[in-house]
């Protein structure tokens, strides 16, 4: 029986171009924690998807001589293909142009309309088409020509004073309730730097939020007012509910059992939407609020945020060609502290790859399976009772507590380091024990068997803990150890208890898991 439910979402990504390293970073993080919690006994949900409505999409489609729907249909596979490449095991992918999303959005906002949380008025103010976001003049920046520009994408903004009537959500009425909620739930916004920013913003006062547009028609229709469509954020946020069954009568029990979820993983640039607008919407609907919004930092190359608009956004497939899928996943989760900005470079990726994967983990698997083949005809030796107490077991016995605590804090770097501590200790144990010397003395055969059993057992344990980061590699290590499907593990604490590797099982050496790389001789991207 599952421990309970565990849910995480990525942003519902705007479909304007293929995902780059930044969007992949969020998605790999969500996948890593989901895989772990599944192995930890939870019934998991992982919702991602694409945000396909709005003025920008309509204008771009027109420029490409396509309908907005055809344009979105042509772009959506870039996301699903990228996530397949990176072994992203989501439970639900929501496209906001799906009928189920229309039902969910109309149900949610109709309830707020009926409850009196919406009113109709003319909008006047600054709007960035690229970001699909309204800004107060105080939030804007100026370019060299003196034009007001968007603080995020740096493009000129439009002043819209056409008298267009929109429907507004009474966000201003939630200032005190939000501040009280932040005080009562200090872990709602993480890390603490994001929390401080949001609290300061809300204390400055909130304006009511336009949630509809009538100057274009590419969006979900407002059911009570013909000619209006929902504003893109009023649509996309609801996808978090759609993905777990909201608005679907056949999945009503599933939704009730899964909401509220544990995490929204988002980039720090969209924390206001998720930490101010979204909880206010849920409060108005009388619904529970997600436990935590985790706003991670940006990936920086030469000090600049990685993004498509800046032209420095590499595609995940480019780096996968060089490092492989699992090493790609491992690097971004182990070396870039989730929650902070992280500088990335090919040089650093090669350094981490060679140190952690080629020299430590991959080399360990190769040398131990080779010695098992050489000294025990390729089968797991029977360990004498005296071998049960050893320095590897001491680390392994406390690893679950250390690793689980890191995952609970969304500290992927710490979790990876905890596993690497054991891997490094096994390599040292091999040097200290010198199996090649033990093999020369028949009188020490039991000692040799104990040393190699302990090494193989530690490899089994390490493979389990690295599975959320590198699922393919861990599955391959399990295969080489003659074990079952690692993906079927649903109690990692029990599975990593020491001494479960069966004796006499055939062990396979195989090719090196991570051949060393030379930074000066990498494939061209």
What can be said about this structure in brief?
With 525 residues, the protein is an alpha/beta fold. 46% of the residues lie in helices and 14% in strands. The longest helix has 31 residues.
Defining key terms:
46% helix, 525 residues, 19 strands, 2 domains, alpha/beta, Rossmann fold, Isoleucyl-tRNA Synthetase, Domain 1, three-stranded antiparallel beta sheet, six-stranded parallel beta sheet
Task: Describe this protein's structure.
This protein is an alpha/beta fold. The chain has 2 domains: 5-114 and 233-314, Rossmann fold; 346-521, Isoleucyl-tRNA Synthetase, Domain 1. It has helices at residues 21-39, 55-63, 68-85, 99-114, 175-184, 192-203, 232-236, 239-242, 252-258, 271-285, 316-323, 325-334, 346-376, 391-408, 412-433, 435-438, 445-466, 471-480, 492-495; strands at 5-14, 43-51, 92-95, 118-122, 125-128, 133-135, 141-142, 148-149, 158-160, 165-169, 189-190, 209-210, 212-213, 229-230, 263-267, 292-296, 299-301, 304-305, 342-343. A 6-stranded parallel sheet has the order 3-2-1-15-16-11, sandwiched between helices. Helix 10 (271-285) links the parallel strand 15 and strand 16. The longest helix is centred in the last third of the chain and has 31 residues, at 346-376. It is elongated. It starts with a strand and ends in a 30-residue tail after the last helix.
């Amino acid at each position: 029986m599952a421990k309970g439910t565990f849910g995480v979402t990525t942003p519902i990504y705007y479909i304007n171009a293929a995902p780059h390293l930044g969007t992949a970073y969020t998605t790999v993080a969500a996948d890593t924690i989901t895989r772990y919690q599944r192995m930890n006994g939870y019934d998991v949900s992982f919702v991602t998807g694409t945000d396909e409505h709005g003025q920008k999409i309509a204008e771009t489609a027109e420029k490409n001589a396509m309908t907005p729907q055809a344009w979105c249909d042509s772009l959506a596979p870039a996301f699903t293909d990228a996530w397949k490449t990176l072994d992203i095991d989501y439970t639900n992918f929501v496209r906001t142009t799906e009928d189920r999303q229309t039902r969910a959005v109309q149900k949610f906002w109709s309830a707020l309309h009926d409850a009196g949380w919406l009113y109709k008025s003319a909008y006047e103010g600054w709007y960035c088409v690229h970001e699909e976001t309204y800004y107060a003049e105080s939030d804007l920046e100026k370019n060299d020509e003196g034009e007001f520009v968007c603080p995020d994408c740096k493009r000129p903004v439009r002043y819209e004073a056409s008298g267009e009537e929109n429907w507004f959500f009474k966000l201003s009425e939630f200032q005190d309730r939000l501040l009280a909620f932040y005080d009562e739930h200090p872990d709602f916004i993480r890390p603490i730097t994001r929390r401080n920013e949001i609290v300061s913003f809300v204390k400055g006062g909130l304006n009511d939020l336009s949630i509809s547009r009538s100057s274009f028609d590419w969006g979900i229709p407002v059911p009570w007012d013909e000619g209006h469509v929902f504003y893109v954020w009023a649509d996309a946020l609801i996808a978090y509910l759609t993905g777990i069954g909201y608005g679907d009568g056949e999945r009503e029990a599933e939704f009730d059992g899964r909401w509220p979820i544990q995490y929204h993983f988002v980039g720090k640039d969209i924390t206001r939407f998720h930490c101010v607008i979204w909880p206010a919407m849920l409060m108005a609907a009388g619904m529970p609020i997600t436990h935590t919004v985790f706003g991670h930092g940006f990936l920086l190359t030469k000090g600049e945020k990685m993004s498509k608009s800046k032209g420095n956004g590499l595609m995940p497939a480019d780096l996968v060609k060089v490092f492989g899928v699992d090493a790609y996943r491992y690097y971004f989760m182990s070396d870039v502290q989730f929650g902070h900005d992280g500088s990335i470079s090919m040089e650093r990726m090669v350094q981490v790859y060679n140190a952690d994967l080629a020299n430590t983990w991959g080399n360990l698997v190769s040398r131990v399976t080779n010695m098992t083949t050489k000294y025990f005809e390729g089968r797991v030796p029977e360990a004498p009772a005296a071998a049960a107490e050893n320095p590897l077991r001491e680390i392994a016995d406390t690893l679950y507590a250390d690793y689980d605590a890191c995952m609970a804090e969304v500290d992927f770097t710490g979790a990876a380091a905890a596993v690497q501590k054991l891997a490094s200790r096994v390599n040292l144990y091999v040097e200290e024990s010198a199996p090649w010397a033990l093999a020369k003395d028949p009188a020490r055969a039991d000692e040799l068997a104990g040393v190699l059993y302990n090494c193989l057992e530690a490899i089994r344990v390490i493979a389990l803990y690295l599975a959320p980061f590198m699922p393919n590699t861990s599955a391959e290590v399990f295969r080489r150890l003659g074990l079952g499907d690692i993906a079927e593990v649903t109690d990692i604490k029990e599975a990593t208890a020491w001494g479960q590797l069966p004796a006499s099982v055939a062990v396979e050496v195989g090719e090196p898991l991570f051949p060393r790389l030379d930074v000066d001789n990498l494939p061209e991207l």
